[in-house]
Design brief:
87 residues, alpha+beta, Glutaredoxin, 4-stranded mixed beta sheet
Length: 87
Amino acid sequence: MANIEVYTTPFCPFCHRAKSLLESKGVSFTEIDVMMEPAKRSEMRERAGGRNTVPQVFIDGRHIGGCDDLTALDRAGGLDPLLGPQE
């Protein structure tokens, strides 16, 4: 199974959508709350090529992008292969 990391904040509707999409796929992910851990926002920004908005999604270390990017990848059929076999 893929290692999925999602940088979020608690009140972000796009974060909730991205997490819901991943949950609907039956995959587990690590949620990193940049509001509770402010130092993680700098880490996120560096990993995401300067992007400062949440969510930022990474699958096996690969930057996928935000909610719209994740949804577009899924619609194009590219998300499931990255997630790997489902348990």
